[in-house]
Amino acid sequence: MRGVSTHGIAWFPQYVNAELFGNLKREWGINTVRLAMYTGEEGGYTTDGNKEELRKLVHQGVDAAIKQDLYVIVDWHTLSDNNPLISVDEAKRFFDEMSHDYAGKPNVIYEIRNEPNGGTTRAQVKQYAEQIIPVIRANDKNALILVGTPNWCQNIEAAGADPITGAGNLMYTMHFYAAEYHEELRNAMVSAVESGFPVFVSEFGLTQASGDGAIDTASAQAWLNAMDEHDISYVIWNLSNKNEGSALFVTGETRNPQTSDLTAEAKWYRDYLKQHATEANR
To answer: What pLDDT tens digit does each residue of the chain (282 aa) get?
Structure first.
């Protein structure tokens, strides 16, 4: 899978629409959209956000992706709320509704935990996942479920040493930002995959890990080459015109972006995907 992630949908809801998704499929060659719904931040699902409106927006995004024949990742985007068990009951109710409404839809993927951090342990992540996964499985036995890994989705070794068993069709997420993370983390990813461990890069960027700063295309090239070589799926951050290096747009266009609407990161990624599609079809 090759795709794009929204920024927080509570802050940039205008990018959640079928016309934009169709443009990115047609012009860039993506086949996946990730819907990032922040939970603990301002406007988040478990703080002061409007739960009903956020659920409607997720439904809108899933329906738009299905309309365009795209995969779509429903992302419970935790960040400052780093202990996953804080919001486990609300997560259960959310994923019960989503997996019920989209049961049997092979397009729909559930990312149940974004980036465990702040000292969150593998044991805590696993305890959380073992409560959420059965909720989804009760509605959809075959849906792909993505599980976060400790230390901002970088400690893939911890997940590999203590995997979740008996749930079926699980993958573990890894994130990187090319201007900050290089060969050491990339080698860990490749090693995990070569050992048979299922890795999905559900978020990456060409900037620093903050999401800002200059893009590093040489490092990004090394990362995407490695992921393509090992058939690893990846999704870039982010669909917004926020004033940061990892935003994909410089204008307010949200439906039919042209080259002049794109940031340097967006242009590089679009061109890479076009080249990759050409090579794949030779």
So the answer is: 999 999 999 999 999 999 999 999 999 999 999 999 999 999 999 999 999 999 999 999 999 999 999 999 999 999 998 888 889 999 999 999 999 999 999 999 999 999 988 888 888 999 999 999 999 999 999 999 999 998 889 888 877 777 888 778 999 999 999 999 999 999 999 999 999 999 999 999 999 999 999 999 999 999 999 999 999 999 999 999 999 999 999 999 999 999 999 999 999 999 999 998 755 544
Q: pTM to 2 decimals?
A: 0.96
Measured distance CA(35)–CA(200) in Å, rounded:
15
Alpha helices by DSSP H, 140-216: 150-153, 156-161, 183-194
H/E stretch holding 69 reads none
Which of 111, 169, 171, 100 has its CA nearest to residue 140?
100
CATH class of the 2-280 domain in this structure:
alpha beta
Full DSSP string of 104-125: T-TTEEEE--S---TT--HHHH
Residue numbers annotated as active site: 115, 203
Q: Which helix (H) or strand (E) holds 268?
A: helix 264-280
Q: Which two tokens stand for residue 262?
A: 């794109």
* Nearby residues of 194 by Cβ (< 8 Å), 6 or more positions away: 230
Q: Cβ of 137: how many Cβ atoms within 10 Å? A: 17
Please report, for the chain, the start and end positions of each structural domain, with discontinuous segments joined by +.
2-280
Nearest to 261 by CA among 269, 277, 250: 250
Q: At what angle do helices 88-101 and 51-67 cross, to 10 degrees?
A: 40
